[in-house]
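RECORD TYPE: inverse folding
INPUT: structure tokens
STRUCTURE:
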């Protein structure tokens, strides 16, 4: 046999407020508010993502992305080009290189022989330091054992170093190059490896 609600004690009865649902207009208002918040979030993310393509090079846009004109990229195998303080800041300056066609890299211009960052120094080009070299080379006067460290255009150590150059993430899109200064890729350090010899020496004046 079923039990009628009238047979239940009064204290078990649902109050009249249980029969009063949330007004429909409040439900519509909540849905509209959520839609507006979602739309604003989508627009903000879209603008941030498109910022490098909307800005006029050179420009530093949201996300610490430096936008450069494609014309700033050195020729294939050419001398590295320093992008300095006025664009990237003194601690984030870098050398732009193109070792092979379409392979554009941005090597941080500040380097240390070990991750401990002791004895760090600024790197330079062999040409600027009057060092004889058949090909463009990047050098740093703070290599292992006080040697002059040298690196090829791919950032790999040629001599005087157990680790290569740190580099920023780079993307090339049409007429512009985008360097992500918030994405520093640190070169791995070789342990128990012999330090290369044959360090290029400065030419005598």
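DESIGNED SEQUENCE:
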């Amino acid at each position: 046999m079923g039990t009628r609600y009238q047979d239940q004690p009064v204290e078990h009865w649902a109050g009249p407020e249980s029969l009063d649902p949330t007004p429909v207009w409040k439900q519509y208002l909540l849905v509209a508010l959520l839609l507006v918040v979602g739309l604003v979030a989508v627009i903000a993310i879209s603008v941030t993502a498109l910022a490098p393509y909307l800005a006029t090079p050179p420009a530093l846009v949201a996300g610490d992305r430096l936008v450069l004109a494609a014309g700033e990229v050195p020729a294939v195998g050419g001398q590295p080009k320093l992008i300095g303080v006025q664009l990237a800041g003194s601690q984030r300056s870098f050398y732009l290189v193109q070792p092979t066609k379409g392979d554009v890299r941005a090597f941080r211009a500040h380097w240390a022989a070990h991750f401990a960052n002791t004895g760090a120094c600024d790197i330079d080009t062999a040409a600027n330091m009057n060092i004889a070299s058949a090909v463009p080379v990047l050098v740093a006067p703070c290599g292992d054992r006080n040697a002059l460290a040298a690196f090829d255009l791919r950032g790999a150590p040629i001599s005087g170093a157990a680790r290569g150059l740190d580099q920023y993430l780079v993307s090339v899109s049409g007429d512009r190059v985008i360097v992500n200064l918030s994405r520093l890729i640190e070169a791995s350090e070789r342990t128990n490896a012999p330090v290369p010899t044959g360090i290029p020496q400065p030419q005598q004046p």
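NOTES: The chain has two domains: 16-54, 59-185.
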